[in-house]
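User: I'm writing a tutorial on reading structure tokens. Could you give me a worked example: one chain, its sequence, then its tokens, then a sentence or two explaining what the tokens reveal?
Assistant: Sure. Here is the example chain.
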Amino acid sequence: MERLKIGNKETLNLSAYAVGDAEQLFVTIINKEYGAGARSATVTIQTPEFSANHVKAIFLLSEKNDATAKDGITLGGAPIENDAPWNGTWKVLNDSRANQINIIVPATSAVVVKLERSIGLN
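And here are its predicted structure tokens:
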């Protein structure tokens, strides 16, 4: 697997995980900042050996960034209900270069960034 670099200059309380293959790379970032002093994370994902043709993100958010919320939680802008289909969507990231993605992850939230490339185009 190719190397992945994630910048966290502000040393925020966050975790990041990556998994992928030759055509897709998924990066999950969890911003564990919460409470009155919670900060959003401005994260830079650098993939020097993986040039993406398409970059999308899907966010897991709670109302008012409440870490104890049991209601008002959305994935891809839609709630996950027991009795209805999920209608969330991936958001296309326009602010991305082939090997670097900059993304803001609000406090008490998570995001999955999906990088895709077509073999033979890179």
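What the tokens reveal: The radius of gyration is 15 Å. The chain is about 0% helix and 45% strand.
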